[in-house]
UniProtKB/TrEMBL annotation:
Lineage: Bacteria, Pseudomonadati, Pseudomonadota, Gammaproteobacteria, Cellvibrionales
Entry function: Required for the transposition of the insertion element.
Keyword DNA-binding: yes
Single GO biological process annotation from the record: DNA transposition
Keyword entries, A-Z: DNA recombination, DNA-binding, Transposable element, Transposition
Keyword Protein biosynthesis: no
Protein name in the entry: Mutator family transposase
InterPro entries noted in UniProt: Transposase_mutator
Highest rank taxon of the organism: Bacteria
One Pfam family it belongs to: Transposase_mut
Family per record: Belongs to the transposase mutator family.
C-alpha cells in the first residue's frame, strides 16, 4: 500500500532556521511561511524556488535541508484546500498529547 507522507512544516521551519545565524532567521521565517501558506501549489513552488535561490549560495545546508524533503513538504497541496491546515503540521496532535502527558504525569506523581 502506498500512503502519501506529509512532513510537518512547523518542525521543518525550526530545523531550517536552526541552520541560519540569528540575524537571518526572521527573513527566512517569512520566506518559509510564504511557501506553506500559499494559496495554490504553483504559488508555493515559486516561493520555494525563491527561498532556495536566496539561501543556497551562502547557506547550502539550509537549502539542502529544505530540498531533501520537497515532495513530503508539498504533498498537502494535492488535497482539497479545506484540509491543508490540518495536514501540513502535526502541532495540534502534539498539543493534545502534550496535555494528556502533563495530566498523566501529575496524577502519577
Amino acid at each position: 500500500p502506498k500512503t502519501r507522507q506529509q512532513r510537518c512544516w512547523v518542525h521543518k521551519t525550526a530545523n531550517v532556521l536552526n541552520r541560519l545565524p540569528k540575524s537571518s532567521q526572521p527573513k527566512a521565517k517569512r520566506f518559509l511561511h510564504d511557501i506553506w501558506q500559499a494559496e495554490t501549489k504553483a504559488d508555493a513552488e515559486k516561493a520555494f524556488d525563491t527561498f532556495t535561490k536566496t539561501y543556497e549560495a551562502k547557506y547550502p545546508k539550509v537549502a539542502e535541508c529544505l530540498l531533501k524533503d520537497y515532495e513530503e513538504l508539498m504533498s498537502f497541496y494535492d488535497f482539497p484546500a479545506k484540509h491543508w491546515q490540518s495536514i501540513r503540521t502535526t502541532n495540534p496532535i502534539e498539543s493534545t498529547f502534550g496535555t494528556i502527558r502533563h495530566r498523566t504525569k501529575r496524577s502519577k506523581g
